[in-house]
Specification:
InterPro entries: Fe-S_Maturation_MIP18, FSCA_dom_sf, MIP18-like, SUF_FeS_clus_asmbl-assoc. The chain contains three helices and three strands. It has 107 residues and is of the alpha+beta class. The protein has a three-stranded mixed β-sheet with strand order 1-2-3, with helices on one face.
Amino acid sequence: MSDKVDTQELGDEIVRVLKTIYDPEIPVDIYELGLIYDVFVNEDRDVKILMTLTSPNCPVAESMPQEVGEKVKSLDSVNDTRVELTFDPPWSQDLMSEEAKLELGML
């Protein structure tokens, strides 16, 4: 068995985990909401997630990034996880997927 990491496959696995985390105020997962700006995976299976929140005053500003980090790190194929929170660019409804907009009756 090879130790070579398929970063694309691992990235897909991480996205599946992210889709199990929901914003407490909006009944849509954080990935479809557009709160995940980027997921970086290196060959050492270290993961960096760049994410935002719907607002800087979001009630889950501390717990949401922590939950994201813990859930992703719980994957057997992940070595380490770092979650970086940014508000640049600020989140807007434009970042939501079509699926999220449909779910919320915006289409």
